[in-house]
């Protein structure tokens, strides 16, 4: 399998590392197809985009025609011998009218249907973070539209793989109201895979164990730490400002703050009747991931996290997206 190369930060290009179980899941889908849309969700920056782009290579090698779109980045791949498909994707990506993102999201499905009409028997459509482009209110209808390709195809086909990835907890909750998608959580990289990535970082860097404890295996945060010259305080301040964590903590009553303090050590305390309203707000802010399934790999897109890891902030049902997310909240609580 060809390993793709991706920019981690400006000036640093790395080879796709690890995710063996996640790629095997793609091969499994390629053999049997996807009866429902596979909704892959997980922490921001955990590597969903890199995995989708590597998956496009895997599917191409398995004989699939592949359409991949990332509307927010105006990025696409068209592994297909229909010039019309590549042309229309390129035109949409080049739009300057402010609607390029929506066009790319829509074209992923439109062109997959067009390809099946043209007797493309093995088709894969991979949509990356489309919900931020089209809006949360349209998330469920988009998934239903994608599902229609599987259930009501415009022509005969041998196999279809349909995958949509998101970091948005509120979007996953909206889609979960229906049975149009199979949720497949993806976690941050496992220790050995993360080490492969860490070793590709040039120059002086902190010991691997320190990088692991800070990021919990999150490749995006590893890149941000590198870009900040390994200044943890800078990364924490940027994270707090981006998420408006201090303002969020200031809105909480004393009981909620005490519950949040307890969740720093044990995030599962949020998975209770009194904790769920606060948990939902933390999910909407992309600070935690909730309702984690059993750690059986069948339920996951890739290697699941441990059942519990106090050091990394992982509980059985609820987990902080990364240790740095948890630390940013801790500091906000201490300063308020």
Explain this structure.
The protein has helices at 20-32, 48-61, 83-93, 100-117, 131-134, 139-151, 169-175, 191-198, 208-215, 219-227, 232-243, 245-250, 254-265, 276-284, 323-335; strands at 5-9, 12-15, 37-41, 65-70, 75-79, 122-128, 159-166, 181-185, 288-289, 319-320. It is an alpha/beta fold and 336 residues long. Strands 5-4-6-7-3-8 form a six-stranded mixed β-sheet, with helices on both faces. Strand 4 (65-70) and strand 5 (75-79) form a beta hairpin. Helix 3 (83-93) runs antiparallel to helix 4. It is globular, with a radius of gyration of 20 Å.
Q: The CATH topology of the largest domain, please?
A: Rossmann fold
- Taking all Cα atoms into account, the compactness measure Rg is 20 Å
Instruction: Enumerate the strands of the largest sheet in spatial order, edge to edge or round the barrel.
Output: 5-4-6-7-3-8
Give the tally of structural domains. Answer: 2
Number of strands: 10
Instruction: Figure out the total of helices.
Output: 15
Estimate the helix proportion, in percent.
40-55%
Mean pLDDT: 94
Q: Give the topology string: H per helix, E per strand.
A: EEHEHEEHHEHHEHEHHHHHHHEEH
The dominant shape is globular
CATH architecture of the largest domain: 3-Layer(aba) Sandwich
Strand count, sense and barrel status of the largest sheet are:
6 strands, mixed
Q: What distance separates the N and C termini?
A: 51 Å
Unreliable spans are none
How would you summarize what this structure contains?
The chain has 336 residues and is α/β, with parallel strands linked by helices.
